From TrEMBL:
Residues 29-145 form the Bulb-type lectin domain. Residues 1-25 form the signal peptide. InterPro entries: Bulb-type_lectin_dom, Bulb-type_lectin_dom_sf, G-type_lectin_kinases/EP1-like. This is Bulb-type lectin domain-containing protein. It comes from the Eukaryota. Keywords: Signal. The keyword Lipid biosynthesis does not apply.
């Protein structure tokens, strides 16, 4: 597949420097034990405080997700069950051996993490990955395996994976555009409801395929590339330097962009 008339819509945007300062209640602990709970306006922080997992407000309700703790706005990088209705403030979340369970005041409980083995512990990692472990400390579920609209360093965008833009800046449900790592080795963007054919794709990573089963990778230094089974097949963005937190996001307007966030750790 090749659409030569399109250029690569990848941009590096620098956010204002920020410190990690959350006014809501947070628990900073590298290990989350069974029966730990959250309620709206609470979260589990990664060890540095760079990422948080918990409830964030959307309109008149709340959703569960992971965000960069930017100040003053939260930058949501993963959303659980993103097309489900928002929940009221009278809701809780509990980590059980069966996984992460949302417990609304009315209606049935909602499972956020699906896994075959019993959970023993969990962790909000400094990579932005929320991980659940079994009793042998083996990973049985991780948010990195189900990206929503954002790719982080260390997270692999594997063949067949898709990322959807958000519906709007204030609504993180699935939007109108998607990015897919196709099995033929092309990274392609389509309107969300369109067939996956050259007629409807509005950007691809050509010329030339990166090879069957190619993977999109974002490194810690901001380098973005397609990697096949042996080597880097195509570089989409060169290294930008260390000391930043990078993210690749499919934005509301249908473009995917590479963002850079300076980070100042707050030890308080």
């Amino acid at each position: 597949m090749r659409m030569s008339s399109f250029s690569i819509f990848v941009f590096l945007l620098f956010s204002a420097a920020f410190s990690i300062q959350e006014v809501t209640a947070q628990q900073r602990n590298s290990t989350i034990s069974l029966n730990s709970t959250l309620s709206p306006n609470t979260s589990w922080l990664s060890s540095s405080g760079r990422f948080a997992f918990g409830f964030y407000q959307e309109g008149d309700g709340f959703s569960v997700g992971i965000w960069l703790t930017t100040n003053p706005e939260k930058t949501v990088i993963w959303a659980a069950n993103r097309d489900n209705p928002k929940v009221s403030s009278n809701v809780g979340l509990i980590f059980t051996s069966g996984g992460l369970i949302l417990t609304p005041a009315q209606g049935e409980n909602i499972t956020i993490s699906l896994h075959n083995k019993l959970a023993s512990s969990a962790s909000m990692q400094d990579s932005g990955n929320f991980v659940i472990y079994d009793s042998d400390s083996k990973i049985i579920w991780q948010s990195f395996e189900s990206p929503t609209n954002t790719l982080l360093p260390g997270q692999r965008f594997l063949p067949g994976m898709e990322m959807y833009s958000s519906a709007s800046e204030a609504d993180h449900s699935n939007g109108r555009f998607l990015l897919i790592m196709q099995l033929d080795g092309y990274l392609v963007q389509y309107p969300a409801l369109a067939p996956y054919t050259i007629t409807f794709g509005y950007w691809d990573s050509g010329p030339g395929s990166a090879g069957a089963n190619a993977t999109l990778i974002l490194d810690n230094d901001g380098k973005l590339y397609l990697h096949n089974s042996t080597s880097i097949a195509k570089t989409l963005s060169e290294s930008k330097g260390n000391g930043m937190t990078y993210r690749l996001t499919v934005d509301v307007d249908g473009f995917f962009r590479l963002y850079s966030h300076p980070f100042t750790r707050n030890e308080n």
